[in-house]
């Protein structure tokens, strides 16, 4: 190991220690858990957009009528594209501006997608499969799909959901609420505990630092002990109630570096998560990190809202 590698390793170790100290100080002052960040992902597997509030609806979350994961990319065979098979999607910067989704990517011109324009989509409807369930999407106009084709260097189509198209049913456990989703993997909403991320970084021992972007939650909370969220069967936020059907299974997507758009060579943090976060009750192979939520009613939640565990 050369001097530069030694210095980098030392710096990461010190930074990891500072994160753990910060987490301990936070918890020593903590009141009830509260919302630290709110994030929406209008296009599945692209970067999220941080907002000050979210509208809770039966199929997930919205902000200014942009719906979470309401657009998705597929290849020429209508197979879904995500960071699992196209990790460079992580590098596409996304903003919500006026009525447009604004995208920027390395060596690409800016793309503005008129999200609410009826002319965004064609009359072509394609079927695709998401985790064994069939759903549908309108094919967007060629100029929008072509932008992704050039960036990914392979034929790509951008799809948008329509209200009359087939929506998938949420996975249902223990007779909890029967909801539907758009292009989310399995459930309408996902929550991550910031202190669980701190604990994971401590276990990574300076070899890697992860943040919420590796896990892509809609709700990031603070002021909770690590993994305490595993026990939150029902929660209330700003008078709205949510059921927790199951923790969130984790896959290779967590290993994509959000700054570089490549998978970690040692499959971290997934490798470390597998060493202590396997629960055979839910999944014998995939580790658990974060929780899925099903809303019981519609309304709004805001940054700094407190969580009540009920």
Automatic annotation (TrEMBL):
What InterPro entries does this protein map onto?
A: MoCF_Sase_C, MOCOS_middle, Pyrv_Knase-like_insert_dom_sf
The UniProt GO MF terms for this protein read: catalytic activity; molybdenum ion binding; pyridoxal phosphate binding
Question: Which PROSITE patterns does the annotation name?
Answer: MOSC (PS51340)
Q: SUPFAM superfamilies under this entry?
A: MOSC N-terminal domain-like, PK beta-barrel domain-like
Q: Which PANTHER family match?
A: MITOCHONDRIAL AMIDOXIME REDUCING COMPONENT 1 (PTHR14237:SF19), MOLYBDOPTERIN COFACTOR SULFURASE MOSC (PTHR14237)
UniProt protein name: Mitochondrial amidoxime reducing component 2
Biological source species: Dermatophagoides pteronyssinus
Name the gene behind this protein: MARC2
